[in-house]
Design goal:
Shape: elongated
Strand content: 5-15%
Helix content: 25-40%
Largest sheet: 7 strands, mixed
Number of domains: 3
Length: about 325
């Protein structure tokens, strides 16, 4: 008996089975199992499928529904997407100032960190990690020491550096990169942009920043990107250069923070492609509590030499 024949036979006998009483159902089941070769328990489920009363899912009733997601996401994004334990503490500060009903506010304050993780799981999957433009530079890893903490820094001059891609979500093609320079001790931040973060362009931008700093560079810390780990820059910095561990962003946390507050939070997924090279370039050096110095120049045929993301003072 073919599967199609079994399907047609099941549809015919199902109506008889549902109308029949207990005694006749037993005979129909005997016949059905003999003809189709089904196990009796499977035959009962097959003939009884559909039309029955829908059973409620077991367990306790859901307490934290999807209606909590909108205000929760609003706080999560505003607080720069913290992990759930920090988010739970942030909710105590943000929720009293939000225009939501008291029941929703009470549920969000009551929810555990694990519950917040579960509610935010779809949002984390969609807005989680961005695209990484770091490409390892393996030639000098043995010569450049690893540094995981800057707790011993007690004077200005120790720089954390990183780059941010202005690619609009795709790393294909040519576009500008922001070079972030942050002094670990004072928080003094300088930003330039380089075209395609080439090694010579990054080196030129570093030299340009160094000339504007009010202190000498005593140490230079970066990730393992090839724009930093190369002979050209290593010969210039010498023993002042250190690096973080691969895939450990916390080793370069000072620069990573400024990547968000000075570049991503202001420009978002701003795209600086080749067709926009006719626009202006802007350089900006900022320090905590200080002013900013701006320079604007026209771009030549060689493309941008150094362009920085605007800071909070330019908004």
């Amino acid at each position: 008996m073919t599967q199609q024949s079994k399907k047609e036979y099941t549809e015919k006998i199902k109506a008889r089975y549902k109308r029949a009483g207990r005694k006749h159902k037993k005979r129909i089941l005997d016949e059905f199992c003999e003809v189709c070769g089904y196990d009796r328990k499977w035959a009962i489920r097959k003939l009884g499928a559909g039309g029955g009363k829908e059973r409620r899912r077991g367990g306790a009733m859901r307490k934290y529904g999807p209606e909590l997601l909108a205000p929760l996401k609003e706080v999560w994004f505003a607080a720069q997407q913290p992990h759930s334990r920090s988010l739970k503490e942030a909710l105590k500060i943000w929720l009293p100032h939000m225009d939501i009903d008291e029941a929703t506010r009470a549920l969000l304050l009551e929810a555990s960190a694990r519950t917040l993780d579960r509610l935010l799981a779809p949002a984390r999957a969609r807005h989680g990690k961005g695209r990484s433009g770091t490409r390892p530079g393996g030639m000098l890893k043995q010569e450049i020491p690893i540094r995981t903490s800057h707790d011993d820094v007690e004077r200005p001059g120790y720089i954390a550096a990183d780059t941010v891609a202005h690619c609009g979500g795709s790393l294909e093609g040519d576009f500008a990169w922001t070079l972030t320079f942050t002094d670990v001790h004072s928080g003094w931040t300088c930003m330039r942009a380089v075209w395609n973060k080439g090694r010579h362009g990054v080196h030129a931008a570093i030299g340009d920043i160094e000339r504007t700093l009010p202190f000498a560079i005593l140490g230079f810390h970066s990730d393992n990107g090839g724009e930093f780990l190369n002979h050209h820059l290593h010969s210039y910095l010498g023993g002042r250069q250190t690096r973080g561990r691969p895939s450990r962003k916390n080793d370069n946390a000072h620069a990573e923070q400024k990547n968000w507050t000075h570049a991503r939070q202001l420009l978002g997924l701003f795209v600086a492609k080749a067709e926009e090279r006719g626009s202006y370039e802007c350089r900006d050096d900022t320090k905590l509590g200080g002013g900013s110095e701006k320079h604007r120049d026209g771009l030549g045929d060689e493309g941008p030499k150094s362009v920085s993301a605007p800071t909070h003072r330019e908004r």
